[in-house]
Amino acid sequence: MNDRPIGIDAMNVYGGLARIAARDLFAGRGLDPERFDNLGMAARSVALPFEDPVTHAVNAAAPLLAGLSAEDRDSIGFLITATESGLDYSKSVASYVHAHLGLSPAVRLLEAKQACFAATAALRLAAGYVAAEPGAKALVIATDVALADARASYAEPATGTGAVALLVGEEPRVLALDPGATGAHSFEVQDTARPTPDRDIADVDRSLLAYLECLVGAYGDYRARVPEADVTGTFDLLVFHTPFSGMVKAAHRRLMREFGAPDGPSAGPADRRWIDEDFARRVAPSLCYPDVVGNLFSGSLYLALAGAIDTLRPQGELRAGLFSYGSGCSSEFFSGVVRDTAAGTLAAMDIAGRLDRRADLTFAEYEELLPHSTSSLVPVADRDIDPYAWKDLLDRVPDRGRLLALTSVKDHHRHYDWIAEGTTAR
């Protein structure tokens, strides 16, 4: 029996090479500016035509693995990719990712899908594997390409693209999971769907209601399993699945009114002020990255966790309550301890710096790129993609490092090459 703490040992975020300001997207689409503040976002990442779920995953994980010793790399025995952006109904994205990360062949490969909940399910699988195999590590990568276009209406400015990589192991440096401290809530609902490789459908109102119902249900189940838990005092930090900041604010308010407000669900004006203060203290630090990247689907919760750690830079340990939601729907509320080594571990990845260095797109540039990006998941027999055709954009991303790019499809088989660091020369 493994009684050592298990959890996230290291993590990294890849937020793409380009972004568009949310206000520019609102204006370009003619969306109602009165609704902008409900979004609570500054920008969203945009995939370039040579980016797909494989390149996102590899570009998130490669810097993380570069810091490992050969022994630690060889201890990775399980690779799970969590994605809604699958490339094949049979072959997993993990197969491509494994090849381009250069991992040992003695690795189990799996692709997980349950909308935005998949990475949390993958984290649970990875933790169970590590517990059963002392000394082993697992790699979980949440990776997705946004398909939102004008058809998505107000969801388009909130939908991001990119990946989050989590290295799972014993004696974790980032987040130690609380054993047995978890609650779940699931039911069938058609709040979002991806019926074809190039089309997302979303019922925003139904999704919000399902999210809130799952939050109450999952935390209620957590409290039944951990009866000493107190939502106002047990957690130093609250981190939510973050499609956009306005939704998280509504979720926090609901959680506090159901389980934490002094006067219960009918909280009055004084209690609303208290809830707002609590939000600013325990939730707002997690929103800095989602506010400039957008919804990363199953990576969204872990993007928010990375943002909270990089914002707070905790010197001591903090207990975090985390809520994961995936449309369709499945959810989990769980907890863990942010370690005193978390800030230093994440600082080595320079997540904020790389997000700041993304190229800024005009609305016209965004519209030109969009058809290429949204077609990246559509199966074709043959296709050539030249990353250097977008040399002007690449040149606007200083210190981008060495990145994987999709370069062709031959007889349905995708091929990838590395873009040279700091140059657009062939």
UniProtKB/TrEMBL annotation:
Listed InterPro entries: HMG_CoA_synt_C_dom (IPR013746), HMG_CoA_synth_N (IPR013528), Thiolase-like (IPR016039)
Keyword Transferase: yes
CDD domains hit by this protein: init_cond_enzymes
Residue spans crossing the bilayer: none
Limits of the Hydroxymethylglutaryl-coenzyme A synthase C-terminal domain: 277-371
Pfam family, one: HMG_CoA_synt_N
Boundaries of every Hydroxymethylglutaryl-coenzyme A synthase N-terminal domain copy: 71-170
Protein name: Hydroxymethylglutaryl-CoA synthase family protein
Organism: Streptomyces fimbriatus
